[in-house]
Amino acid sequence: MMEPRHFRTLFISDVHLGSKAAKADFLLDFLRYHEADTIVLVGDIIDGWRLKRSWYWPQVCNDVVQKLLRKARKGTRVVYIPGNHDEFLRDFPGMHFGGIEVVERMMHDGADGKKYLILHGDEFDVVVRNARLLAYLGDWAYDTAIRINILLAAVRRRLGMPYWSFSAWAKLQVKHAVNFIGEFERVVTEEARKSGADGVICGHIHHAVIQDMDGIRYINTGDWVESCTAVAEHEDGTFELITWRALASAVPALAAIEMHDEGELAPQAA
């Protein structure tokens, strides 16, 4: 049995609960083995866009929400920064729901004294040539890639193999996607600089990375649709990118995680 790990802060984004592509079972498993003084939900936790088109809310979505509420009741500070898919929560800044705080953006004081601007990042789509995530492959192609993900995940799980994202791999093969990612990182980093921060923590583009850009630390938490990643802050202020590639209950625990200290999530081969 894997022992739970405790961190100063956990950052999670782009879960898209309500979408059939959401890896809610992976996130629930992750939350069982990871504790923190503070958990920051960096947007798109609930996929309001998908839910408006067709309602899909299996029990595991409730389980994730209940798990977060339970952590809040037990003393964990849980902060929710809405994204574009859960923008309905932007009408409630400063409100508390079951102990979960809602804020538009926030400044995080790191344990090492550095300041980090935290925001979802969708507001910079307009700056980056009016692009959106689904423009990488086109709406149809992206949805097709996600469906392939679901099929591959079922097959690999039956074979006892860890999760691998076809859509994340395919996205990084497309030149326009790579260009979009680079431009997004640049404008978000510049926003952190303008805000007087030493770094920025965001989500939105489903590309997990920790890197330095012109003296600013850029951290993207990734997602729980493609990469199943979260970012953790240790007690000394260092950051770690964690990838949860298999359910600990189904695969030996040591195979379930890949830890990347202050580095980038590399696409894994099938």
- CATH class type of the domain at 5-120 and 199-250: Alpha Beta
* CATH superfamily heading of the domain at 5-120 and 199-250: Metallo-dependent phosphatases
Q: What is the helix fraction of residues, given as a range? A: 25-40%
Q: Enter the CATH topology name of the domain at 5-120 and 199-250.
A: Purple Acid Phosphatase, chain A, domain 2
Assigned CATH architecture of the domain at 5-120 and 199-250:
4-Layer Sandwich
Runs with pLDDT <50, length 5+?
Answer: 127-139, 251-257, 264-270
Outline the secondary-structure elements:
Layout: E1 5-12, H1 24-32, E2 34-41, H2 48-53, H3 59-73, E3 77-80, E4 96-97, E5 100-102, E6 106-109, E7 115-118, H4 139-158, H5 166-171, H6 175-194, E8 199-202, E9 209-213, E10 216-220, E11 229-233, E12 239-244, E13 257-261
Parallel strand pairs: 1-2, 2-3, 3-5, 7-8, 8-10
Antiparallel strand pairs: 1-11, 4-5, 6-7, 9-10, 11-12, 12-13
Organism: Rhizobium fabae
Protein name: UDP-2,3-diacylglucosamine diphosphatase
GO molecular function: metal ion binding; UDP-2,3-diacylglucosamine hydrolase activity
Walk me through what this model shows.
With 270 residues, the chain is α/β, with parallel strands linked by helices. The chain has a domain at 5-120 and 199-250: Metallo-dependent phosphatases (Purple Acid Phosphatase, chain A, domain 2, 4-Layer Sandwich). Helices cover 28% and strands 23% of the residues. The protein has 6 helices and 13 strands. It has helices at residues 24-32, 48-53, 59-73, 139-158, 166-171, 175-194, and strands at 5-12, 34-41, 77-80, 96-97, 100-102, 106-109, 115-118, 199-202, 209-213, 216-220, 229-233, 239-244, 257-261. It has an 8-stranded mixed β-sheet with strand order 4-5-3-2-1-11-12-13, with helices on one face. Strands 6-7-8-10-9 form a 5-stranded mixed β-sheet, with helices on one face. A hairpin with a 2-residue loop joins strand 4 (96-97) and strand 5. Helix 1 packs parallel to helix 3 (59-73). The two termini are 27 Å apart. Mean pLDDT is 83; it is low at 127-139, 251-257 and 264-270.
